[in-house]
Amino acid sequence: MTEKPTLQQLEYETEQMVAAAAEACDATQEYARAANGHCGRVIPGATAYDLLGNTKALLWHLGEVVDYLPQGLQASLRDDRIRVYDRDPDTGADRDPGIQVARAVDHLRRLRQLVGEAATVAEAAQTALNSQGWNQG
Fold first, then answer.
1. Is 86 exposed, middle or buried (0-12, 13-18, 19+ CB in 10 A)?
2. Model confidence over 77-129: pLDDT tens digits?
């Protein structure tokens, strides 16, 4: 039987996840700026092919995160190292965290479907460009 990580380990892992998410967000922001702001907005098909491949991979990885979030959220409600609470942002009144997690899980399931569809569409667009190249005109 494996031993449950300590609260300090949970805090460290949480910090690592948040930092990795922030780093990914910064990287995708740089990716967007590079893709939409260079070369007079000309993106040859071969370049778009590479960009779409990376976009597809980003979406797959994002899908992995979205797949795990419902399980992680639900586990947080049962973990005896922490006490999850929830307060209404408008009134400050206590709310049932389980109800809010259930709502989030419903939205996350839909998000997972949309991310999967987006990855499939990115792959189709990439495939459409798989034989393009370019040279000096």
1. middle
2. 999 999 999 999 999 999 999 999 999 999 999 999 999 999 999 999 999 99
